[in-house]
Write a structure and sequence with these properties.
about 180 residues, Rossmann fold, globular, six-stranded parallel sheet, alpha/beta
């Protein structure tokens, strides 16, 4: 899974742009090439119900309160051809749920990559663990909001073995 490789998280001038996106994407590409037809790409979309706590969220981040059609939410160009599957667009941090299980199968073993380690990757990993899936987080194929937040998120996910395993791109590829 490639979680949210979008302009909003990649652009240096975005409030949510990760300074580590380009380096992580090099490894995302390596993993996508290795996994071929089994790659799934997600996008975070600003379509959540504003009458819930999401209303407060968008009040705190007004730059992101735009129509879903805004180019800010597009995949970065190099991510557009990573998957043969349609992009899974969800208005949630965590992407794990029935839509993912329908593609990968219940109790699957998945490799998680993407942005940001300390938000959408973490939220997806914990939901996958709760759902009974095994997830390997390719740490060097994830980009955090800061180096400290990336490390903290990896630490938290590392507390969930055997459902969650922290690894790296080379180990994941050789272990296939």
């Amino acid at each position: 899974m490639v979680i949210d490789p979008q302009n909003i998280f990649a652009a240096p001038d975005s409030d949510w742009g990760s300074p580590f996106f380009a380096d992580a994407f090099t490894n995302i590409r390596r993993l996508a090439d290795a996994f071929g037809e089994n790659v799934l790409v997600t996008r975070w979309m600003p379509t959540a119900d504003r009458s819930t706590a999401w209303g407060d969220y968008f009040a705190a981040w007004p730059f992101a309160d735009r129509p879903a059609s805004d180019p800010l939410f597009d995949l970065v160009p190099e991510a557009r051809e990573l998957s043969r599957h349609p992009t899974l667009d969800l208005p949630t941090f965590g992407k794990w749920g029935p839509e993912i299980e329908q593609v990968v199968g219940r109790g699957a073993h998945v490799v998680l990559t993407g942005v940001s380690t300390d938000c959408c990757v973490l939220s997806t990993a914990l939901a996958a663990a709760d759902a009974g899936a095994h997830a390997t987080i390719a740490a060097d194929a994830c980009a955090g909001s800061t180096a400290e937040n990336h490390a903290a998120a990896l630490h938290v996910m590392g507390l969930y073995p055997p459902q969650l395993t922290i690894s790296d791109t080379a180990t994941v590829i050789t272990g296939r």
